[in-house]
Amino acid sequence: MLTGKQKRFLRGIGHGLSPVVMVGKGEVSDSILRETSEALEAHEIIKVKILESCLLDRNDVAQILAVGCDAEVAQVLGRTVLLYRAAREPKLELPKQSEEKARKKVTGSR
């Protein structure tokens, strides 16, 4: 699960990217999942454009793609989804959660 800081970092990187995968009236098929997974393998972070002909809700499409590709949704903005999946040899280094915050989450103290 991505933290807010990590999502913010990924949104900054994803801003300049062009959509790699397009979801249209065929909606989310096996071939779209395969294409998305291959793109994530090559790039780690990708933009997916949901065309107006797609009848599914944009958030549903984002969740289906994330679950099907074992990825994280970094952002859903309009009809564009930003997906992230760490590569076997990561190219991106995500910001780490601070030790104090991690300790507070584990112990439940404030």
How much strand?
15-25%
What is the residue-mean pLDDT, rounded to a whole number? 89
> What CATH first level would be assigned?
Alpha Beta
Fraction in helix? 40-55%
- The CATH architecture classification is 2-Layer Sandwich
Tally of DSSP helical segments:
4
The parts where pLDDT drops under 50 for at least 5 residues are none
Largest sheet: 4 strands, mixed
State the separation between the terminal residues, measured CA to CA. 21 Å
Q: What is the overall silhouette?
A: globular
Radius of gyration: 15 Å
Q: What strand order characterises the main sheet? A: 1-2-4-3
State the oligomer: single chain
Q: Give the CATH superfamily.
A: YhbY-like
Features:
single chain, 110 residues, alpha+beta, Translation Initiation Factor IF3, 4-stranded mixed sheet, 4 strands, globular
What does this structure look like?
It is a single chain. With 110 residues, the chain is α+β, with helices and mostly antiparallel strands. The chain is globular and about 45 Å long. The protein has helices at 4-14, 30-43, 58-69, 99-107, and strands at 19-23, 45-50, 72-77, 80-84. Strand 3 and strand 4 (80-84) form a beta hairpin. The model has no long low-confidence stretch (mean pLDDT 89). The protein has four helices and four strands; from the N terminus they run αβαβαββα. It has a single domain (4-107), classed as YhbY-like (Translation Initiation Factor IF3, 2-Layer Sandwich), CATH 3.30.110.60. Helix content is 42%, strand content 20%.
